[in-house]
Protein: Trehalose 6-phosphate phosphatase
Amino acid sequence: MHQLPTSIDGLALFLDFDGTLVDLAPRPDLVHLPDPVRHSLRNLAARTGGALALVSGRPIAEIDHYLAPLHLPAAGLHGAERRSLDGTVRRFDVDREAVAVMRHAAQAFVNATPGLLLEDKGIGIAIHYRQAPEHADAVRRLAITLIAPRRRHFTVQPGKMVVEIKPRGLDKGSAIAAFMQEAPFAGRRAVFLGDDLTDEKGFATLRRLDGISVKVGEGPTIAPCRLPDVAAVHHWLADLAAHAPSAH
Structure:
């Protein structure tokens, strides 16, 4: 494993949310971002001239809710929506009727299976089985069945105790690459922290960009750096913020 950066100078920082900035919770709406972490993010954003972005499977509106009053560049829904530093938001259009059909079928399955939770992401759906892990295989089979007639446009994305159906061709790597083409990220070296399978696409992009990937937690990864848990991420961000030079 390689050593993590000890200075933010010249870097563009990209952060996953769940499992990276906040500990995973039984329900997605039960996560909590400690105030000291919010303080670190505010300082790092200011001292990099805004070259700090959240890259998440959640909608941008949810990211804003948990980071308030911060309003940072962000990519939500695995890149289906992306907000630049100037506030411009770009959204990927999908077949909403197809999503509605899959959502209806998934909701019926969830209603009949105690412990499951359906999350409506607008452009896709996620079925959480953290409170009913014995149904993991059934959830995966359902997702594969639902996208079968729509395979050209949708794909299944497994995660930690969750299976998502999302538009094909969208991932965190493409979102990071888009950020790196615009100010204030362009010309900096990208650093991306993530904990889940969905973050490996981001790590692959950083490898092509000569960036620095950091895996949070256990499990196989292509990232050359690792932090053991969310608490370690918080400490690392605080150290970076404490030693960060001012942006010019």
Observations:
- The first strand starts at residue 11 and ends at 15.
- The chain has two domains: 11-92+170-242, 96-167.
- DSSP finds seven helices and twelve strands in the chain.
- The radius of gyration is 18 Å.
